[in-house]
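This section describes the prediction task in plain terms. A model, or a person checking by hand, is given the sequence of a single protein chain and must write out its three-dimensional structure as a string of tokens. No templates, partner chains or ligands are provided. The sample shown here is typical of the held-out split.
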Amino acid sequence: MNGGSVKTPGISNERQGQLLRAVFAILLEHPDGLPGREVLRQMQERFPPTEYEAGFHKTNQKDNRGAIATRWWTVDCVKAGWMEKPASGWKITDEGRRAYETYTDPREFAREANRQMYVWRAEQSGDDAEVGSGTAAGDGESAPTEVAVVASAAIETASEDAWSEIQAYLAQMDPYSFQDLVAALLRAMGYHVSWVAPPGPDRGLDILAFTDPLGTSGPRIKVQVKRQQQKVTAEGVRAFLATLGPQDVGLFVCTGGFSSDAEREGRYQESRRVSLVDLEHLVELWVAYIDKVADPSLLPLKPIWFLALPPVQD
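The expected answer:
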């Protein structure tokens, strides 16, 4: 979605700010993120849609006007650095927390997000022109067409729905099949997998791989794979680090992700090298290397084309 000012008949600037701040209030309650569709559902529970907002565009009978408009407006917040919107779930940033506390007036909140978006756009284009006070929806110099807004929302919701299906598919996968999936990905990336743990106690090690066929050069890669919903804690990362020798590189894959403490534990290691791979990163790697995977049916994905209109020109 491209973002920018949107003239939305039936939704005032004040209302835009109220809905955006509701989104932020919900995300503040869920620091680990929440699927976009769920955020919008809760938003409309707190601020029931008006008659106009409850209606539907003729090309989209799935998401009402209020949800579609809010999706578009949140792009300003992304460009402002206030929030992130991966398909796996929307998240508020530290900058977003500060903005929520600073700009308590709904109109001011929306205007500042829009102003920050124009700052971002100017930086991307190399335009040194001074950016003014910004404009909230309804005040813009130019507005995207309804088709552009609805098409952008369709891409975003389709990505979220696809991600939910991928999550569900991997969640029900047998743990050893998931282990095989990780091994297949490593092979596709050019690593030489020498051992995959058979069923039974793994003692913290699931896969061994090397950078050459004989394992005579480069580090030995030790992999631990966990297919679980819970986040790995710092203690879990430290336990894995204890299995690594001086010349080893650790790869910790967990579908549930890692706590912030666990991420810091891995990030600031001085004596051991370790990479933490959550589900989102794993799927990104799978997509990047799927053409080289020997058995892509382990996670069968298929690209689908959507209409993606060019950015709005001011």
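For orientation: DSSP finds ten helices and seven strands in the chain.
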